[in-house]
Design a protein that fits this description.
By secondary structure, the protein is of the alpha+beta class. The chain is built from 10 helices and 9 strands.
């Protein structure tokens, strides 16, 4: 009798211990779940080509993330360093506004600084004109071999705009469309741009903007754009999602030959390949300059992998703005290898 009671008592102790262990496990799981860092679900939106050309496919242009303005953890330190630098430049009255948009194509990740601020894109919109002609050449390659004549009326229009650089085109001379595209991008020649614009339907160019979700410029009206939005043109070129692969390669090859070297290039080691386009706007009356803007955006083909960097600035001195862009470019280049 005594032995039977001892056996029952032992079983009670065993079940009691098991119960405590079970409850302890549940409690530990609950605490661990509550303390576990929660991973934010990032939603994405697909931007697809607005076309009725196809019956069975819906061509993808690019994908945007819901947190594009939130820096990837590995780039928080870089973003803060650049933000501090920009603050110091503002205090020194070097710049009034500076925006940055960055994407690392090899390792992934991004960061932005005031990416939605609006600026006058100026010559950067020449990229869109090039895309328009190359898009047309994908279906009609002969377009690039057409000959256009630089008439006096086009030259006079350029001369009437304050602070515009003179064109290297010769009045009365005929040029191939392909050569004009090169002049327009490589040397940022405004005469070549105006001649190309005079032979392309503006509605055709407007479609390029609307297809990637942007508002198109109205002829003769002021137009502004953010670095986040302008980066879309380089993103569709790099991804080869709007033009054919060959035309996308051609576009970036031409952009890599741009002669402007005072912005992104000035902050990089000699020989670094950059497919980029700068934009410059001088605002003033007569010889009195009240405000200037300088931007440089493109893809840096660094040894550690390609990345997109777009820097837009506003201030009172072009040389100071160029130095600001160069410094930011140098900071990004020096950080990317360790990211």
């Amino acid at each position: 009798m005594f032995k039977r009671e001892n056996k029952v008592s032992s079983q009670k102790y065993i079940w009691l211990i098991v119960g405590f262990l079970f409850l302890g496990g549940l409690l530990g799981f609950g605490i661990g779940y509550c303390l576990k860092p929660k991973t934010e679900i990032v939603s994405t939106t697909s931007l697809r080509e607005d076309t009725n050309q196809y019956k069975f496919i819906d061509p993808l242009l690019l994908v945007n993330r819901s947190d594009d303005n939130i820096p990837t953890p590995g780039y928080v330190a870089l973003q803060k360093s650049i933000e501090s630098y920009i603050v110091s430049q503002k205090k020194a009255n070097v710049v009034t506004d500076t925006s940055v948009y960055f994407i690392n194509y090899k390792k992934g990740g991004l960061f932005t600084i005031d990416p939605d601020n609006q600026y006058d894109p100026a010559s950067m919109l020449k990229v869109v004109i090039m895309i328009g002609y190359l898009k047309e050449s994908d279906t009609d390659p002969s377009i690039l071999n057409q000959e256009l004549t630089y008439f006096p009326s086009i030259a006079q229009n350029l001369e009437s705009i304050p602070f515009e650089d003179p064109s290297k085109l010769v009045v009365g001379q005929t040029y191939l469309v392909s050569d004009l595209i090169n002049q327009m991008i490589v040397n940022s020649d405004n005469g070549a741009m105006n001649l190309l614009l005079s032979h392309i339907d503006n509605s055709y160019l407007s479609e390029i903007y609307t297809e990637i979700g942007l508002k198109a410029p109205a002829p003769g009206a002021p137009y502004t754009i953010s670095p986040a939005d302008f980066s879309l043109f380089f993103r569709i070129l790099y991804n080869g999602t709007y033009l054919s692969d060959a035309s996308s390669e051609k576009a970036l090859s031409i952009l890599s030959q741009a002669t402007f070297s005072d912005g992104l290039l000035a902050g990089l080691p000699a020989g670094t390949v950059v497919a980029h386009k700068f934009g410059e706007r001088v605002i003033g009356s007569g010889d009195q300059i009240t405000s200037v803007e300088l931007h440089d955006c493109g893809i840096v083909y660094a040894n550690q992998g390609p990345y997109l960097l777009c820097v837009m600035t506003r201030g009172k001195n072009l040389n100071s703005l160029a130095a600001t862009i160069a410094t930011i470019s140098k900071m990004v280049y020096g950080y990317v290898p360790s990211s």
